[in-house]
Amino acid sequence: MIMPAYTHLILAALLARVFLGVLFFLQGYDKVFRMGLKRVIETIHTPLHDKGIPNTLSVLGAYYTSYTELVCGVLLIAGFLKYYSLYLLGIDLLFVSLLFGIVEPMWDMKHIFPRLVLLIFLLIIPAQWDIVSVDNRWSFIQFIKQAF
């Protein structure tokens, strides 16, 4: 059986969204539940403090990145509030890149760049490709309710 070309687009969108969601979820899960936020803060505090970054920025950054990655990762996996999640994760990546750049100007982007590429891909593909999602089902239910 040959699948239509449109099916490949749907599967590509699903695979990219779920994969990115899993990456962020596992990263947030490690920070919140395995390492603990206290240890995350301790890890980033010293290098940032040495560069003159206030402690409150380290603490707020640790909380924002950890919980955003955890929650938005789950939301991406489900395909619920996809665009809100992608924008929050985009801010997360910008924030992390900024802080890494302050600590070490020539830092390795091997962890950030693939996430950024997938995030941009999901933002620019047509919404019709990402139909295997809670957002799509919710839109369909709302459409049916309005029609009748």
What does this structure look like?
With 148 residues, the protein is mainly α. The protein has one domain (5-147). It has helices at 5-35, 37-50, 55-78, 82-103, 112-124, 134-147. The protein is elongated.
Q: Helical segment tally?
A: 6
**Count of all domains:** 1
Mean pLDDT: 89
Radius of gyration over C-alpha positions, nearest whole angstrom: 18 Å
In terms of DSSP E residues, the strand content is under 5%
Largest sheet: none
- Name the helix and strand elements from N-terminus to C-terminus, one letter apiece: HHHHHH
Structural class estimated from helices and strands: mainly alpha
Uncertain parts: none
Assembly type of the chains comes to single chain
Distance between the termini: 37 Å
Q: Shape from CA axes?
A: elongated
Strand segment tally = 0
Residue share in helix: over 70%
Q: How do the helices and strands line up, and which of them pair or pack?
A:
Blueprint: H1 5-35, H2 37-50, H3 55-78, H4 82-103, H5 112-124, H6 134-147
Helix pairs in contact: 1-2, 1-3, 1-5, 2-3, 3-4, 4-5
Short description:
This protein is mainly α.
Task: Provide key terms for this protein.
elongated; mainly alpha; 148 residues
